[in-house]
């Protein structure tokens, strides 16, 4: 999740670097929240993938020892 937070912060800084109207800021806020949510989801999916892969590797080693 740290990567998603860091990237979301970078995106937010880039989008908000210049002065904007309140309407533009609202739109940008919505975009930033969508980006952050997407990055969190990707991070969660990657964690799940790595966990499953590691579990499969452990299972293979255990079976090989039997």
Question: Can you give a write-up of this model?
Answer:
The protein has two helices and no strands. With about 70 residues, it is mainly α. The chain has one domain. Helix 1 packs antiparallel against helix 2 (about 20-65). The mean pLDDT is about 80.
Mean pLDDT: 79
Shape: rod-shaped
Q: How many separate domains?
A: 1
Task: Please provide the ordered H/E string of secondary-structure elements.
Answer: HH
Largest sheet: none
- Per DSSP, the total helix count is 2
Structure class: mainly alpha
First and last CA, distance: 37 Å
Binned, the helix content reads: over 70%
Radius of gyration: 19 Å
- Total DSSP E strands: 0
β content, as a range?
under 5%
Summarize the structure.
The protein has helices at 2-15, 22-65.
Architecture blueprint of SSEs:
Elements: H1 2-15, H2 22-65
Keywords:
66 residues; mainly alpha; 2 helices; 0% strand; rod-shaped
């Amino acid at each position: 999740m740290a990567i998603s937070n860091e990237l979301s912060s970078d995106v937010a800084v880039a989008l908000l670097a210049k002065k904007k109207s309140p309407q533009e800021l609202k739109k940008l806020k919505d975009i930033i929240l969508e980006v952050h949510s997407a990055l969190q989801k990707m991070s969660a999916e990657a964690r799940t993938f790595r966990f499953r892969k590691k579990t499969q590797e452990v299972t293979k080693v255990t079976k090989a020892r039997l």
